[in-house]
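[recover] target loaded
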């Protein structure tokens, strides 16, 4: 397989107030000093920081994304944010179907598919998250669970927009534990096969991100695994210097 330009995406989750914008500024400086970074770099701050973060990122290659969007373009959905609102605030991407949303907000793969379709309709690139729980892995059903999530969480068509799927085993998120490299390679090959069967060339070009306790010390090994085309990074994306070490490992 030809090398796909990796995407290194940071997910700040529900962390950060104005002071955290300094991390955006620092990351911009680090990227500027480094010059030739052969990856796309994205930070997804909380919605309250989106607009200021995208202003701070201006003039650099750093892109800004949302962490979730509603499936509808507007309307009576108190507290929710639409895809076009994220775009308007300066986002280029949006994470959908993160396991914390699936668990905390009861999002099903059908919900996630509707959100991804809304993102595409608004002109955002969705990053669609999938991943098995520890019980599912121990029961030997990880392939089947992730296969079904991929099947039902992805819209019918992506048009010209790249397909991005993040494999995030739930038990590896924020725990410091990661699957073995063989297990990551196996799951990513499985997802690639499903995407190629369904989307053809677009499936071959799909970016398959790994997420779950990626940190500077394990990033290089994970990122050179076949069919791993980038990372979705939680905790280690909060500090620009840590995140930058992961970026240079790609
Ligand atoms: C995430 O939540 O997307 C994630 C991968 O978190 P962490 O890197 O902290 O495990």
């Amino acid at each position: 397989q030809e090398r796909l330009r990796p995407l290194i995406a940071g997910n700040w989750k529900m962390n950060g107030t104005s002071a955290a914008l300094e991390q955006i500024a620092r990351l911009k400086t680090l990227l500027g000093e480094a010059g030739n970074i052969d990856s796309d770099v994205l930070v997804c701050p909380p919605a309250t920081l989106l607009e200021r973060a995208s202003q701070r990122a201006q003039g650099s290659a750093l892109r800004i994304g949302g962490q979730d969007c509603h499936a509808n373009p507007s309307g009576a959905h108190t507290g929710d944010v639409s895809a076009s609102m994220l775009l308007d605030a300066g986002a280029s991407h949006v994470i959908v179907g993160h396991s914390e949303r699936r668990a905390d907000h009861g999002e099903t793969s059908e919900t996630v598919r509707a959100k991804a379709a809304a993102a595409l309709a608004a002109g955002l690139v969705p990053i669609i998250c999938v991943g098995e729980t520890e019980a599912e892995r121990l029961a030997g059903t990880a392939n089947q669970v992730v296969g079904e999530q991929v099947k039902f969480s992805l819209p019918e068509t992506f048009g010209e927009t790249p397909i991005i799927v993040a494999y995030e085993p739930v038990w590896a998120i924020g725990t410091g534990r990661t699957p073995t490299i063989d297990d990551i390679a196996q799951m990513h090959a499985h997802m690639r096969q499903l995407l190629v069967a369904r989307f053809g060339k677009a499936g071959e070009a799909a970016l398959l991100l790994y997420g779950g306790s990626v940190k500077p010390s394990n990033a290089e090994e994970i990122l050179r695994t076949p069919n791993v085309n980038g990372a979705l990074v939680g905790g280690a994306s909060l500090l620009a210097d840590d995140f930058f070490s992961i970026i240079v490992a790609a």
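[recover] notes: Residues 70 and 78 are 11 Å apart (CA to CA).
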